[in-house]
Fold this protein.
Amino acid sequence: MKTFLVYLLISYPLSMAMAQFEPNYDERQVPEFKIPDPLTTFDGKKITATSEWENTRRPELYQFFEEQVYGKVPGKLDSLSFNMVETSDDALNGKAQRKQVEVSLFKNGKSLDFNILLYLPKSRKPAPIFLGYNFYGNHSITDDPNVIVSKAWAMDSEEFGISGHTLTEASRGVRVHRWALEKIIDGGFGLATIYYGEVDPDKNDFSDGLHSLFYMESQEIPKKDEWGSIAAWAFGMSRALDYLETDPDIDASHVVSFGHSRLGKAALWAGASDTRFAGVISNDSGCGGAALSKRQVGETVGRINTSFPHWFCDNFTEYNENEEALPVDQHELLALIAPRPLYVASAEDDQWADPRGEFLSAHYATSVYDLYGTKGISDTKMPEVNSPVQNTLAYHIRTGKHDVTEYDWEQYIDWAKRFVAVKP
């Protein structure tokens, strides 16, 4: 119970935490359920070849997640543009290049802008990239005084000096520990990050952010099968990738979609939706991310849809405290990323995100990786803490809480060197 409360105080408003029912962390109380077979179609046909997976099974699985879980993107942009706002060849004590790029999206006579902060190693061009959102503004991930402070809506945080939903200098560098910038650069990778609130503010209000660009006349909220915020954030990652493909300093064929917690859910959906991503990393993504829903451990479908009704499409509420009715589970979301490299990571004290459920999800997705002749997680026994299993489909559980640590990044960089961005 201690871990549950710590996690909530870090990540959720206290009023939401108090509204939750007592979560289950007892393996003896996990309900019996059948694991849906990724390699058996909804009408019972067994998939035995990659062509059958790609042409039959993968499309029907993707359609279910798109229409019943994350929601469909209602159309295409009219256009988009990129503007280099700032650049320096003397970042991180001279070892990196910094770029700040404004991405502008246009639809139905309306527009939305978000900013990509890039750090690229001067020692390797073009550079492979980790692309991921941050929670409190691009300036929060570094002490670099040149990084622009976002003007977008932000969650208030007494700890980080954020009030009136406005980001200021007070929050510069408050999340340095989550972004091992120098390790990433020294490893030969670049980092691209975006403040997620610029793409879609994390609040149950669809009047602003990305959704509003796509509304038909008199529409005020997405339709039941249309995108929630997670799908909007995933869409934003793909638009950032559109920019990365234009930058000669970046190896856009080796971009890894990275995310932590709710943004880990977005990174997974981005990787499933956009096969241009060369790899995907899910860090403590939990319910609606890597963890199996049917286990009902920690956060459940009903709890997440109640606390964060804007994250998923409205159709997903049909499965509130009704996970047994789901014809899929999250291992099949992971399988949609195959055969591309995928890393699922958990934290020992983060029981709310169900580490065992995240591990088992990676295990049950392995059959699709096997179909391609690549290696996943074959063992049903979880590895020891701080003992990573690094294959094309990788997994680790580390000591500590719901967070991103230097240990996590050390594993991701090593894995990405071996499986994503192999040097010629």
